[in-house]
Amino acid sequence: MTLEVASLSSPGGRQANEDAFKLSARGPLACFAVSDGVGGEIGGDLAARAVVESIVAGFDADPAVNEHALARYLDSAKAEVVHQQLADPVLKNMSATVAVALIDCAHAQVHWGHLGDTRIYQFRDGGVHRMTKDHSAVQQLVDAGLCAAEKIRSHPLRSSLLGAIGVTDEGAADIAYSSKRLEKGDALLLCTDGFWEWITEPEMEASLREASSVANWLSAMDHIAQHNASSSRDPRQPRDNYTAIAIRVADQEPLLEQA
Strand pairing partners for 187? Predict the structure, then answer.
């Protein structure tokens, strides 16, 4: 099984990019991590970078694809963020969302974990499925039937998170884990809210259907998001940072190819 991969990260309309991503492959095993530094506090960029670097460092040192290994990699990320918080009082409130996917090409298996509103989508047989549920106030409203799901992108509470790496408040959300088998033709998308906010799931799926490669798919989605953001947002409010990793599964020898 081959993984064709493309990635992008941009500051959007802001001066600094507080998103981070990192990926690695060890034989038939692959690790993909995306993180978004939480705004409003100093050090969001440092937290996001610490999260993805810790996860991939843990994977590189002891590569495995199972929930136990995934929890271990994420625990190391949490520990690193806390270490930096304690080392510098200025950074005491820094935090970051995370979405990480571990893929075993030899056994066609994916394990993922996430915290916050960085998402993972799966595309199969012309349909799209959001594999993660946001840890956010507006997602709770949707779950309670108090907000329509299609309003989640524009709701005033959309950016109000219930959990992130580095947040230790009592009652904060925990990392959610799950796993699934992969099939030939599947595609995955890991992306921060600055990306999914400006492109709908039907637009994601339609652009995949028309794409000749995973790089072409990611580029098409980026253009759609740019157009939607330019048409809809308040010109006084710059577009947020955005990051995405797109992955497509093919039935070939186990390896990872990056477009």
Answer: 123, 248
